[in-house]
Amino acid sequence: MRIITIDGLNAEVEVDGIRRKARLDLLPNAKVGDYVLIHAGMAIALVDEEEAQQTLSLFREYLK
Amino acid sequence: MRLSDEFRDESLVQQVASRLRTYEGISATIMEVCGTHTMSAARFGISSLLPDGITLISGPGCPVCVTDQRDIDAFLAIGQSADIILCTFGDMVRVPGSYTSLEKLRAEGADVRVVYSPTDAVNIAVGNPSKKVTFFGVGFETTAPATAVAIRTAREADLHNFYVYSCHKTMPPALRALLASGETAVSGLLLPGHVSTIIGTRAYEFIPQEFGMPCAVAGFEPLDMLLGIEAILSQIVEENPRVENTYRRAVKEQPNEHARELIEDVFVAADCAWRGIGVIPGSGLEIAPKYWAFDAKKRFSELVGSANPVSNSSCRCGDVLRGAIRPNECALFGRACTPLTPVGPCMVSSEGACAAAYKYGGPPTKNAR
Ligand code: SF4
Prior knowledge:
Number of strands of chain A: 5
Structural class of chain A: alpha+beta
Shape of chain A: elongated
Number of domains of chain A: 1
Distance between the termini of chain B: 41 Å
CATH class of the largest domain in chain B: Alpha Beta
Number of helices of chain A: 1
CATH topology of the largest domain in chain B: Rossmann fold
CATH class of chain A: Mainly Beta
CATH topology of chain A: SH3 type barrels
Shape of chain B: globular
CATH architecture of chain A: Roll
Bound molecules: iron/sulfur cluster
Radius of gyration of chain B: 21 Å
Radius of gyration of chain A: 14 Å
Oligomer: heterodimer
Structural class of chain B: alpha/beta
Largest interface: A-B, 26 and 33 residues
Strand content of chain B: 15-25%
């Protein structure tokens, strides 16, 4: 889910137009626009888009 | 396109699967430790994509399923207290206790509320000052920090009507216990992606080092799971067991320090009973003494102590959770036990192996083991 707003350690996150509240206690440095994994109302991990694209392109490369 | 969609890309999945099918090593059973993997594997038909001789089996990673019957009965017993509101994650509502369930208590008029996060339960306590609000803290390292935040929030707000019954558990001691028992004949472990975001891949080094067991941390999309399985198979072929991280976009080697600080502040490690496995040393998270004012086990000690669990001997959830059998090897599976009439928690929870096997057809009964 993508972070839409941040107010202290409280954030609003969104995916496919669905919005939810999430706490940022575990990711206090997260920024608006970051992708995060949410579990039980907590952002538990940042999703590193670069790392993801790298994995995917490795694949495409290898499978060519 | 969403990132997760790319990891579901059908043609990519098929291509990786055909590459995987060139595997010519020994037959192997791989345990998917996490309940979310169990559900994902069933939903995306991962088993059917694997090479001949490679099978998946579920492990102890469904938090609701591994909750001991005594803990479920104790939480239900707290419901007898006057002016009580029981708060739980939705998966627990229909889990049968020895004598009743949260669903039945609710039908009888008890105030049982499903919450999405532990903080929701704190808010219910704020809004209902004349009620005692008790949250059933079930979950692994992924969920425990959220409960810790809830307890700290309750203390900061000086709440005197919020309690937690902690059944939180930690994964590494359970894996150690399973591997040490030697009962489960697995050749590799597919490690839980979400738990690993909290504890880091370092926490699993003992698996290859002490047990010579191949393993890989994997995400939950089909491509993620195939990558993890492929990593395990190459470790088997190379006879070089190690901890491989195939979920790099979310999981690091180091633990999340904020989570560790929260867990160490609010909880203390304690011996803990797991359904089907028994007491595992140091695998539970009990509320630390400085937060005992919020500990439901202390506040309702008499009711908690009155729990007198009787086991349903024909439900084989315990065997399923150890990877000793597959769901459809239980005589009740799909007969007396269905999602509408669940006999055990593995048929109730959305992460339960029996529920996954029932919903998606599951692997054949007679397997290559
Ligand atoms: S099918 Fe039902 S009775 Fe059998 S192990 Fe699973 S939950 Fe228990």
